[in-house]
């Protein structure tokens, strides 16, 4: 179910600048993500897309600028605080817990929802067991949704890449996030896998109403999936708008195809 | 053929989440526990082979149980949370000496404040448990560096703990109640009026403690906290992103691990050694525990038992088998052989099977389920 008031702004990034020594990864970037939409951030290699996501979920602390998420503004926060606020994330190179099964990986995503502390978990009895089973039930729903029932007990290190990506999406979904950041969810996938992943992204957006911000290089995917697209180049936002607007933007064409000097 | 799970359907998540979801495993465990709790004491009481003498109880089963417990503690830190520790021996020592001090009464004169902290001698059980808590506190303290440093550097920091406590218990006479030789004697093992003296009683005491603590440890590692530890071990950045606080996860791992090791240390001193010196908890002990965990299986409670058994039994086998074959080896040769076997085995396992014997067993079980077909 898409959120009814699709104009409510969930995330506002305002004048963010980030530099690593002399390298200016982001220069005065502003954009917003509306509640319930699929927002894409695109750009050539080294444009600062991943840096942007890292700023949003607290990995990097911007030198300037402010980030407003769900109405509260902050410039610095730790990744686990972002997670508590409702921001989930997947990585460009899969960042799963290799030694754990797919099920345990997704169960780990529910850490923030666990209420019973160490002593209850020691006993694993009564309310603690009931809670564990409740989390397991929620996780099984996600496993059903992502169609990975058969691999739930397999250590993720043994899974093929496409399935690992899916498990990673499952782990992010287990957090029941308000904002889901996907860093190149389709990198290195073949056509069928891309189609599957696109279907999951649309379903997550429709079914759970999760707002999604994604980085992707496959233009066909981006233009089909997203409601609005922001384009970064060399740390500067050069275009922002619906896929059609962005496609026609001269700055974007120049950034991707180069200009005659 | 016997090891088949066909027809065993799990209708609830609770059944699927059981420690041993397969019926044959449950039966095997029940038989094992039956032998351990009933069979062994009966045989030992009536002195039936192989319990004709107390040798098997004293020299093998008792140290096996206590070291397995310490190995579980080490495994939680090293195997589950991925924080390499070379200070397990020190935490055993803290457990042992704290328990000793608490059982004999603590007196800290604070002359400049005009009073003294005096704690009367506590019962043995309370002392042992409090010894564990003291070790947990020390573990948290020495775990703080783990928030900044990783891997080898952390290992060196825990090594510092080892050397510091080796020194403290050797040089500060307060810990040994000013015993001139530096060696101390355990108090009488009085549990609510029941005095534990004979080897069988000691064995049963340790067995009960180890069983309970192993079950609790297993509960922890398969629960949310265990998943947090493993997440930190496998990829700490991603762990932070799903809301795991590294501070909490790492320090709980240090605390729980040190508590278990501390209790094992207190048992080692009180129940097994009876009288001991700091040498009992030297760096050799730390390394031995680390070997047990690596050989038995990193990240496996069962592996801790297998590793402890292996490390204890190999030297004995090296002694017994050549003698039976008519080729008695000298003590030095046995020691050298031991180094060679452990060293090469650890190299082999680290390269080929980092999860040790426990993983080999589970692979074996997977194969057994399909036997005689390959898949």
Key phrases:
heterodimer, A: 261 residues, alpha/beta, Rossmann fold, 2 domains, six-stranded mixed sheet, four-stranded antiparallel sheet, globular, B: 375 residues, mainly alpha, ABC transporter involved in vitamin B12 uptake, BtuC, two-stranded antiparallel sheet, two-stranded antiparallel ribbon, 6 strands
What would you note in describing this structure?
Chain A: Residues 11-259 form the ABC transporter domain. The complex is a heterodimer of chains A (261) and B (375). With 261 residues, chain A is α/β, with parallel strands linked by helices. Chain A has 2 domains: 1-86 and 213-261, Rossmann fold (3-Layer(aba) Sandwich); 87-176, P-loop containing nucleotide triphosphate hydrolases (Rossmann fold), CATH 3.40.50. Chain A is 38% helix and 25% strand. Chain A has a 6-stranded mixed β-sheet, with helices on both faces. A 4-stranded antiparallel β-sheet of chain A has the order 2-1-4-5, with helices on one face. In chain A, a hairpin with a 2-residue loop joins strand 4 and strand 5. In chain A, helix 3 packs parallel to helix 6 (161-174) and helix 5 (127-145) packs across helix 6 (161-174). In chain A, 46% of the residues are buried. The mean pLDDT of chain A is 89. The model of chain B has no long low-confidence stretch (mean pLDDT 90). Chain B contains 14 helices and 6 strands. By secondary structure, chain B is mainly alpha-helical. Chain B has a single domain (54-370), classed as ABC transporter involved in vitamin B12 uptake, BtuC, CATH 1.10.3470. Helices cover 68% and strands 5% of the residues of chain B. The A-B interface holds A 57, 59, 78-80, 82-84, 88-89, 91, 95-100, 104, 107-112, 114, 118, 121-124, 128-129, 132-133, 135-137, 140, 171-172, 175 and B 12-14, 17, 216, 219-220, 222-225, 227-228, 230-231, 233-235, 237-245, 252, 256, 299.
